[in-house]
Structure of Stage 0 sporulation protein A homolog:
Amino acid sequence: MDKPLILVVEDDKAVKNLITTTLDIEGYRYHTASRGQEALVEAVSQTPDLMLLDLGLPDMDGMEIIRKVRSWSKMPIIVVSARSDDGDKIDALNAGADDYLTKPFNVEELLARLRVSLRRMKDFTENSQEEAVFLNGGLVIDYSSGCVSLDGNELHLTPIEYKLLCLLARNVGKVLTHNYILNHVWKSALDSDVTSLRVYMANLRKKIEADTSHPKYIQTHVGIGYRMLKIG
């Protein structure tokens, strides 16, 4: 079986060479792009399995690329950027990125995050093939199609949002700790990942709760984790 195809979007030649050399050594296939428009063309024409994305491109901000790709693809996107502020990371995750790695980076960490994102996508695909439907009030999860609807309206979720929702649904009524969720969705339980979990949970709530200050479906247990409430 062919190794996954990685799209490397990076305009710094030295960084691009480091990443592609690393991918070569590990046996991954890859395409490269140095500009935003080129990256979008490659994403459409080559249908890569994952994108490694620099935010500071000469013709387009990487945030715009994330939003455009997310409008039609669930492909994992790992941001590799020199922007180190927490606000930049949160903005990228809100836009639909799956992970965020700050330059300069360790190539072993890059490979580890790449493997986790690809495994996460594989799990998402396999979960989407299950023949079952989850019903809870007006919330419907069709595992066979990977579709979610609320009160008859289809919801557009990112792969991580979908995986979070499915994990809560399969454990409806149970309080899931931060570590439990991180181990099942992020395949790790690093303290730094709790921030990502909170961002994704906040985004998920915005999509399924009529009033996020008085949640109907997902309850927060402060300092512990989250629980999906059984409706009816």
In short: The mean pLDDT is 89.
